[in-house]
Amino acid sequence: MFAQVIWFPSQASTTAARVDQLLYLLTTVCGIVGLGVAVVLIYFSVRYRRRRNTPTPAEMRGNTPLELTWTITPMLIFIVFFVLGAIVYFDAYRPPDDATEIYVVAKQWMWKVQHPEGQREINELHVPVGQSFKLMLTSEDVIHSFFVPAFRVHEDVLPGRYSSVWFKATQPGQYHLFCSQYCGTNHAGMVGTVTVMEPADYERWLHLNAEGSMALEGRKVFLKYRCISCHSADENARAPVLEDLYMRPVHLRDGATVIADDDYIRESIYDPGKKIVLGWDNLMPTFRGQVSPEEINQLIAYLKSLHRGETPQRVEEFTPPVATPPINTK
Amino acid sequence: MSIAIPRENYLNTTTGVMSWLLTKDHKRIALLYLITVTLMFFLGGVAITIVRLNLMTPDGTLVSADTYNKLFTMHGVIMVFFFLVPVVPTVLGNFMLPLMIGAKDLAFPRLNLASWYLFVLGGVWSLYAMLAGGLDTGWTFYTPYTTSSSHSNVIPALIGIVIVGFSSILTGLNFIVTVHRLRAPGLTWWRLPIFVWTIYATSFMFILALPTLTMALILEIVERLWGIGIFDPALGGDPLLFQHLFWFYSHPAVYIMILPGMGIVSEVIPCFSRKNLYGYTFVALSSFGIATLSFLVWAHHMFVAGISLYAAMIFSFLSYLVAVPSAIKVFNWTATLYKGSISFEAPMLYALGFVCLFTAGGLTGLFLACLGMDMHVHDTYFIVAHFHFIMVGGMVMAYMSGLHYWWPKMTGRMYSEWWSKLSAIIIFIGFFLTFVPQFIVGYAGMPRRYNHYPPEFQVWNVMSSAGASILGVGYILPLCYLTLSFWYGKPAGPNPWRATGLEWQTPSPPPTENFEVTPVVVRGPYEYHVEKAQNEV
């Protein structure tokens, strides 16, 4: 009658086995305690059931050493659970340095994936075994949650910021991708497939109909929106130089310092007035509604690859913005 | 000597609809609440029946996706805000608190009636919003979905919940003042029954935590109505802020639900094993331990929501800490049975069922407090199963235990013993069959709030739905035999369980002013070894 029965999710990532070990440990300890309580409860219920001649039981006051025993023992066991769980959790959210970044944009009700090599997918994610991937997740509308049970990977996807989680797949195969945070009508339809491939197959797949790398696409975006007319890295620049910016500290006009990470870059495009770089004026208009979240991701990829002296030449036929403010004299 | 219903009691001193709708008697108000919340419980039950039917097949084609979303939202909203949170304080607490402390009524009888009217107003308001047009946000109202994306009746439903919140805040205030001011002579703090302790602790949580929910919901209304950016990042808000505010109330709310249940069980187990409650002081203090710690664990609902790893670590640790007082209670209840003289009437069966299911629910809570585990099972059916073990297996079992324990006091009549034992067993079995499969399918990866799902999850869903039908029967039975007993039950007499509490030292049903002579308390609450304690009437 039923097609398949699933008892246990597949173990397809390095994290999966560790989460399952926690499950085995907790199930064993809690199982023993739970069964113990049940057995004692049943035993007492049978042994001390009321019979015709049962006398009125004697008074039994508490016993402080006993109370302390069953207060402190659980606490010690809990501390072990806590430490082991925290280690697995920490490792699951702190990617190794060699992790490749994949950008995922969620919206009602689909997943859009951008690989650094330029491949783009919808409701699918292809990855090879044995390589670490860091997912940079963001949402266009409401909160979603990226959940791949076979990887034991789970992270909410928030609008307006990036969240991240990483994994290293270990078993080739096809696995479910679920949205696990309720997101409206078609929440249950916001599902996809994660395909784990052998590295050679993955290489082949990467070069199927890829247009250009994500950074290259980002460069096109950079030119398309004429970012270059101000961020030109020459004497006419009206805005900060963006070369070697990614993950570097930026000094702000209000005295604060921020790291130029994904969130900062995204905010500087959507809300340019929020954090103004020291020495520059607030000239930039918002690009909210013009630059899509995926284009933002491409721009970030481009900035990551943009090193000293690589800013493209300003193309003079681009007219500068109509109400050009006075050029910063600094 | 034949037992008879006292000729004049609170049920028949005055007659007519208005004598009920304008009553200031806490016992009558408790019955008004009983009718209201029972209605709510079955409405919430109807909604989940359709949900479970829809989940029998993987493609879930019984109702549309939108209808499905509205149904589980309705189930959650009704069960949490209109049943689980208010039920024990407003029905059993309202009825029993003054009787258990030897008072004539609550401190503010008019306020008590006003609380019921607020409850009805909020309830009708929300129900109308959810039935006419519907609400599809889930009972958690996460932003920005609720404020910016949902096309359903969000604002009216939220207003109703805000109103009901005030009802609970006022009830809490009333209980605190009553416990402080109206205890009978000789009833010192350490002679208070545990049920009074837990209701007292719960009342503090109402007053301290509920205003946060009220504010959070009003902020949502403001954002949705006027587009003022509070939670929606597109308007400059912070989506996680709402989750922090919401769980700052809604985690304590879990303990608001379960604490009074623990109080009930602490009354019932000593009575039916004829023993004093083991470790009375530890049980009483652990209630306040739970109440205090429960305010410090809210972000364990947000381990995968993008909060800082270090914050998650602190909240995981504190979540383990809050489990300790619960463990203390379980061990003390079990120890109370030791060398007792145990009998198995319906209240005791429910109470033992509570201990089993609550223990299972508590132990699976340890899985969720474990960061590395929660990361996988968050927002899956594992969570659903866990909190139903606590709230339904624990809380509803305890409520049924209390209802059966005090029913003779409330109505003066006994219900059918055979049917009541049968339904306790049916509920216990049905519960297990419903929710154990959900643990398995949850760990296998099935997310919550899905109206259709991959076919490999079907077996577990069919099992769960089958169990739910048994559970449903288990809940309909008490509705029938308790209702019938109200008119046809045998008179119970003042103290059918030979219990020691003050509430049993007055006729059943009690007169309007509760006690003919104000009782004087000379001993602790559970002195079953003192023969005299059970016979004082």
Mean model confidence by pLDDT of chain A: 89
Query: Strand order within the widest sheet of chain A?
Result: 3-2-1-5-8
Biggest pleated-sheet summary of chain B: none
The DSSP helix count of chain A reads 6
Distance between the termini of chain B: 15 Å
Assigned CATH superfamily of the largest domain in chain A: Cupredoxins -  blue copper proteins
According to CATH, the homologous superfamily of chain B is Cytochrome c oxidase-like, subunit I domain
Structural class, from helix and strand content of chain A?
Answer: alpha+beta
| CATH 2nd-level architecture of the largest domain in chain A | Sandwich
Q: What would the average pLDDT of chain B be, to the nearest integer?
A: 93
Q: What's the overall geometry of chain A?
A: elongated
CATH topology of chain B: Cytochrome C Oxidase, Chain A
Radius of gyration of chain B: 23 Å
CATH architecture of chain B: Up-down Bundle
Helix content range of the residues of chain A, please? 25-40%
Give structural attributes.
heterodimer, A: 330 residues, Immunoglobulin-like, 2 domains, five-stranded mixed sheet, B: 537 residues, Cytochrome C Oxidase, Chain A, 67% helix
Could you characterize what this model shows?
The complex is a heterodimer of chains A (330) and B (537). Chain A has a 5-stranded mixed β-sheet with strand order 3-2-1-5-8, covered by helices on one side. Chain A has helices spanning 14-47, 64-93, 199-206, 214-224, 262-270, 293-305; strands at 100-107, 110-114, 120-122, 124-128, 132-139, 144-148, 153-157, 163-168, 173-179, 191-197, 249-251, 257-259. The relative contact order of chain A is 0.11. Chain A is elongated. Chain A starts with 13 loop residues before the first helix and ends in a 25-residue tail after the last helix. Chain A contains 6 helices and 12 strands. In chain A, α1 (14-47) packs antiparallel against α2 (64-93) and α4 packs across α6 (293-305). Chain B has 537 residues and is mainly α. Chain B has one domain (24-535): Cytochrome C Oxidase, Chain A (Up-down Bundle). Chain B is built from 16 helices and no strands. Chain B is globular and about 70 Å long. Chains A and B meet through α1, α2, β7 and β9 of A and α3, α5, α8, α9 and α10 of B.
